[in-house]
Amino acid sequence: MEFVSPEGLRLDGRRPMEMRQIRGEVGAVSKADGSAVFEMGNTKVIAAVYGPREVQNRGQQMSDQALVRCEYSMANFSTGDRMRKPKGDRRSIEISLVIRQTMEACIMTHLMPRSQIDIFVQVLQADGGTRSACINAATLALADAGIPMRDLVTSCSAGYLNSTPLLDLNYIEDSAGGPDVTVGILSKLDKVTLLQMDAKLPMDIFENVMQLAVEGCKAIANYIREVLLENTKQLEHRRGI
Amino acid sequence: MREFQLKLNETQKIRLDKALQQIQALSSKNNSSAFASVIVADTIPVNHEDGVLKGHGTSDLDGEVVATLCGVVERVNKLVYVRTLRARYKPEIGDIVVGRVIEIVPKRWRIEINFSQDAVLMLSSMNMPDGIQRRRTAVDELNMRSIFEENDVICAEVRGFQHDGSLHLQARSQKYGKLERGQLLTIPPYLVKRRKQHFHHLEQYGIDLILGCNGFIWVGEHVEVRDAMVEDQENKPDQLIKMSDRNLMSIEEQEQTYTPLETRKVICRIANAVRVVSSLGFNLTVEQIMDIVEMSISPNIEIHEMLGAEFYVQIAEREVERRSSAGKRK
């Protein structure tokens, strides 16, 4: 199948190095300590953060750091074929773990000993790149909850189809079976916290693809910073003196 | 944005937007110099020659001071810290908090106060209802449920952190203790400012208003400092029976615990005022709440209408007026 037309356009009309439109919004769940909605094109994810709060299961309490938990789920209506998946299937357990580890790397857990932070992410619309969208939404929600973090983690995926590196794959490109590289970075520290690839790529091409994904992450980081700054300013203005 | 779910019609939307814009303009005019919002991983500009003390919400990265939170940079002499908005409550010694009992464990109650862990109220750090100062015996320990039960709402003062990192509360005065016959509201804690006075007796309505520093607000019927408790203790056997079977209360007792309709209406009115102010994100003060309550009473606004779109817009506009006049006076 032809994923990049001779004119250099992808199936949804983007250029190979073009990202889908992104949109982030904080404060989607009123009862949560922090929450956010993040959209990448047609992929839409909602995240809610509760905590730091008392550890529910005493046995898991740690006296020197906070416990971070994450739950990823996909709404039944998020995909076209309405499949009833059992909760806790292998895919969502794996993604929960990935998100938890990525977020734990940036949260300063040692500042909140004997407490627990719960991150819930749910995919409302799935169109490829849910993993990245979930991480971005979780970052926004954590920042909204006032949880101290080393840096903002942002994530973006890139792939390689028709001998062209493509940024931010959508569902059709994702299911083409080509390599899909998901990268998560700390933009300020310039460190990689997440790198996943589920196919083989030659070393030199991989570097190009990864570089592309990192560029995508940085663009997302800039956008997230704007959203957060706007939100912080508004809260402060509203509060008054 | 964190917008309340309201059905605004076109004019109301424009009025609200205008009011909020004015507020923004006012506050940036008033404190443009001290005002510096930062978000996670922003570099905070500091003068390293003067020496810097890094406070909360900052960390060190290659010699730069970097924020780890979203908020406003505050500088006190050498200290630089980030004051967060929208974080959980951070207790300070002497704060007055409202909380909910979630568990009774030997010699202590565990209390939820919106902090990262549950607070602890020791049996020994509260005045006994009979008012006698003495060692707490095993009998007292067994009778703990007669003082506070699970799910009771109580009011106490922050005593401090113990060596093991747990937070302790105390209730060594008549004004602390169980709160009954009223409403508990939860609002973001940063909207409550620490002040001298957190207990407010609104005499004209006969209402007690407690602005807990942890963002839990209590609106309830006014109670005189409790002599009734002493009586209760004297005829304790009666009380225990009463506990076990509340349906069989005598008529006098029912009258005693009955809150008149008028009072209940006022409670709702004040509670709604608090809801409106907090969902608009304005700072919460007694004067403001009273102002709103009066404003709702005079033109005969129904209690439920206070949560409607029109009233929100009115409050926002009024806040603009208030702030602009306060700004002029300065």
UniProtKB/TrEMBL annotation, chain A:
List the keywords (alphabetical): Cytoplasm, Exosome
Return the SUPFAM superfamilies for the record: Ribonuclease PH domain 2-like (SSF55666), Ribosomal protein S5 domain 2-like (SSF54211)
Q: What's one GO MF term for it?
A: RNA binding
Please state the protein's primary subcellular location.
cytoplasm
Domain Exoribonuclease phosphorolytic stretches: 18-148, 151-216
The cellular location(s) given in this protein's UniProt record come to: Cytoplasm; Nucleus, Nucleolus
Q: Name one GO cellular component term.
A: cytoplasmic exosome (RNase complex)
- Entry superkingdom: Eukaryota
Q: Which GO terms describe its biological process?
A: nuclear mRNA surveillance; poly(A)-dependent snoRNA 3'-end processing; rRNA catabolic process; U4 snRNA 3'-end processing
Q: Which Pfam families match?
A: RNase_PH (PF01138), RNase_PH_C (PF03725)
What does the similarity note say? Belongs to the RNase PH family.
Q: What is this protein called?
A: Exosome complex component rrp41-like protein
Q: Which organism is it from?
A: Thalictrum thalictroides
Q: What is the lineage of its organism?
A: Eukaryota, Viridiplantae, Streptophyta, Embryophyta, Tracheophyta
TrEMBL record, chain B:
Q: What Gene3D superfamilies has UniProt attached to this entry? A: 2.40.50.100, Nucleic acid-binding proteins
Tell me the superkingdom of the source.
Eukaryota
Keywords, ordered alphabetically: Exosome, Nucleus, RNA-binding, rRNA processing
What GO cellular component entries does it have? cytoplasmic exosome (RNase complex); nuclear exosome (RNase complex)
Which GO biological-process labels does this protein carry? CUT catabolic process; exonucleolytic trimming to generate mature 3'-end of 5.8S rRNA from tricistronic rRNA transcript (SSU-rRNA, 5.8S rRNA, LSU-rRNA); nuclear polyadenylation-dependent rRNA catabolic process; poly(A)-dependent snoRNA 3'-end processing; TRAMP-dependent tRNA surveillance pathway; U4 snRNA 3'-end processing
Pfam families on file: KH_6, S1_RRP4
Family as reported in the entry's similarity comment? Belongs to the RRP4 family.
Stated name of the protein:
Exosome complex component rrp4-like protein
